[in-house]
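Bench notes, afternoon.
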Amino acid sequence: MPTYVYETIAPKPGEKPSFFEFKQAMNDLPLTTHPETGEPVRRVVLGHFGVLSGRNPDRSSGSGPCCGPDSGCCG
């Protein structure tokens, strides 16, 4: 079972959320309240995303937007 990260939703602007981890099956609905305190919570999405531009950079010359001479992706 994966472990998901949740944060509390601060009741007042400027308050810092607290974070906790919770194991649940992938097909379980996300929590809406903290299992111990009952505070409202939301699932935090971790990771990164990429933007697909539809262009195919010329990787051999190192001239593409993600393939500079020092990037290490051009072989």
